[in-house]
Amino acid sequence: MRVKMNKKVITILIIIILIVLAGIGVYCVVRNNHKIDEANENNTNNDKNTNEIQSNSVIDEETNNNIQQNEQNRNVGNIDSTNTNNSLKGNITNREENMKLYIKVNNRTLTATLVDNSSTRALIERLESSDITISMSDYGNMEKVGGFGFSLPTNNENINTEAGDLILYQGNSFVIYYDTNSWNFTRLGKLDNVNQRELKDILGNGNVNVTLSLSE
């Protein structure tokens, strides 16, 4: 009876040990599976981070390319702007040079600065072909006046003249004022560096031939 009981106890112990071992085996399998899942998750996260880094690198590269392109465009724009400004300055300089008129009278040459309007531009266009000589006479003890022999566009306005003013009257007459007047006519320009007394002496009394030119 005692031996039988011992055998029964041993059997129970063996069963318990087997159950424990089975439990340990299941635990190990579950733990390994959990580790595998964690490893897979880490790999997935690493792949995701790698893709994000690559994506960010592509974005950064595109951004740098855009910045470089913008810089190139800006440089091109600056060059074009500089060229445009230089061209405008050149045009302004040429225009200023072309707005000078030389008036030859009684063996003297007077220099005048023309205003910029359609009248003076038309006059300059004619002077580019040839000089213009005008027979002028005194009028009203204030001016010398003579006909062009052709008509120019008018830009009439009310003007209070003074000595040295150059006027277009009625579109076809050239006037050099040596005294004051007030009338509605077109301003052409003004003589440079000459006062009223000097101008009267140069123009003289009576009729006089005056030659207009774009060069001295």
Descriptive notes:
It is a single chain. The protein has an 8-stranded antiparallel barrel. The N and C termini lie far apart (153 Å). A hairpin with a 3-residue loop joins β3 (132-139) and β4 (143-147). The protein is α+β, with helices and mostly antiparallel strands and 216 residues long. The longest helix is centred in the first third of the chain and has 97 residues, at 2-98. Helix content is 53%, strand content 27%. The chain folds into 2 domains: 1-98; 99-213, Cyclophilin (Beta Barrel), CATH 2.40.100.
Annotate the secondary structure layout.
Elements: H1 2-98, E1 100-105, E2 108-114, H2 118-127, E3 132-139, E4 143-147, E5 157-161, E6 165-169, E7 173-177, E8 181-191, H3 196-203, E9 208-213
- Enter the CATH topology name of the largest domain: Cyclophilin
Strand content: 25-35%
Low-confidence stretches: 87-96
Order the strands across the largest sheet as they lie in space. 1-2-8-6-7-4-3-9
Determine Rg (CA atoms, Å).
Answer: 51 Å
Mean pLDDT: 80
Question: How many helices?
Answer: 3
Q: How many distinct folded domains?
A: 2
Number of strands: 9
Question: What's the shape?
Answer: rod-shaped
The CATH C-level name of the largest domain is Mainly Beta
The biggest beta sheet reads:
8 strands, antiparallel, barrel
The name of the CATH architecture of the largest domain is Beta Barrel
